[in-house]
Amino acid sequence: MKKQESFSLEKGEDSQEFDDDGQPRRTGTWMSASAHIITAVVGSGVLSLTWCLAQLGWVFGTCLLVVFAVISWYTCILLTDYYRSPHPVTGARNYNYMQAVKTNLGGRQFILCAIAQYETLVGVSIGYTITSSISMGAIRRSNCFRKYGHDRGCHTLNSYYLLIFGFIELVLSQIPNFHKLSFLSIIATIMSFVYSTIGIGLSIAKIAGGAHPQTSIGMPHREDMSSKDNMWNIFCAVGDIAFAYGFTSILFEIQASLSLSLSLSLYIYIYIYIYIYIYIYIGGC
């Protein structure tokens, strides 16, 4: 810390413009942190929550939402404490998850963590790309049905949309300092609330219109499906619920953007309570 401050002073720079690690002073606020977390949490994972509760039933599905919320809360508390180590207040900063593992557990665990985290990032990227291509295909089929009626097949190859979306991702990834475009998180937050509200509104409108689909307290068993298919759907539903809470991997990056006077752990409780309510509400609709 002293070395970093002296380095700044030797260059004639005001130490007030830098944090204790020699980096430019962080200006992140609770609003920017909320935007980042909402963008990560209220993502495409919430769109499948209704299907998940339909596969698991009201009791087991709601219990899983609460269980994964508790797991996420406990993980967040641990990660916020390990942002600085070995001391949670005066220790050195860990700017990402792998650096925290290397500092606290050593080299071998760091290598295993790197492999697991990069596999997760690749898997999530593939998942979002596939989800986006399916959504684009669904929009085209919906327009086809509206134009020609439901008697027409309106089959669409999602592979074309997969290539288009992947190409757009490659182009956008070349933007320099992409991580500094904080307004994207605000736009994504607004979009997340918009399509969540649309899903809730459509569900309410369908029920108000007299459609009362069959629900189940326990795990439903469809007669037109085999036991193997039902079991597969249950496992997929559990995985989708777990995926919906997968924002802890970027918690270090979010905390690294906050000012020194702001502690992210104070807001973790509020975020978890809000997301439990949103998830149960969306899943119940």
From TrEMBL:
Ranges of Basic and acidic residues composition bias in the record: 1-14
Region of interest called Disordered, as start-end residue ranges on this chain: 1-25
Broad class of the protein's primary localization: membrane
Transmembrane intervals: 33-51, 57-79, 157-175, 181-209, 230-252, 264-282
Domain of life: Eukaryota
Molecular function in Gene Ontology: amino acid transmembrane transporter activity
GO BP terms: amino acid transmembrane transport
Residue ranges occupied by any Amino acid transporter transmembrane domain in the UniProt entry: 26-283
UniProt entry keywords in alphabetical sequence: Amino-acid transport, Membrane, Transmembrane, Transmembrane helix, Transport
GO-annotated cellular components: membrane
KW Transmembrane (keyword) present: yes
Pfam entry (one): Aa_trans
Subcellular location as annotated: Membrane
This protein's name: Putative amino acid transporter, transmembrane domain-containing protein
Source organism (scientific name): Helianthus annuus (Common sunflower)
